[in-house]
Amino acid sequence: MIYPLLMDVIKYTVAGLCVVALTYYLIKPHLDRAEKFQLLDLRKAVTNQTLPLKLQAYERVVLFIERVNPANMLIRLNANEYSASELHSIVVAEIRNEYQHNVTQQIYVSPSAWAVVKRIKDDTTSIVTNAVKGLPEDASGLDLSRTILTHLSTLEENPYDIAAVMVRRDLDDIL
Q1: Contact 142, 80 (CB under 8 A)
Q2: What's the longest Cα–Cα distance across the chain?
Q3: pTM score, whole prediction
């Protein structure tokens, strides 16, 4: 009497488990696909929000490169009014200020693009510092400007143009 009842319970339990397992395996692919679509929609939304920020960051990086280019900076600072040592201090401070103003852009640009920014900052500071060391103490800002621009003109390729091209190429890879 108990044996047939126990067999019925086992049969119904096994049948129920089979129905549940079959249902799970039939519905699982649909649930996985729905989850993939949700993830895709989430990524799309994040990209739509971050893409303008990334574009703006790359824009600011190119602007930084142009602003620390001595050919542009020396004109903007009016080198004629200063002695070489004063102009050196002003240029170095200007480079540091520009860098500090743009330091947060590294969140949105690639590590290679940010490495270009740091390299340009360091190289420009070195160019200016080396130029002022080679001048006499009573040299004018105009003398320093000429020395810097002469040094840049002797280079085979303009490092600021190369840096801007590298940043633009990096941006093209993202888009």
Answers
A1: yes
A2: 117
A3: 0.73
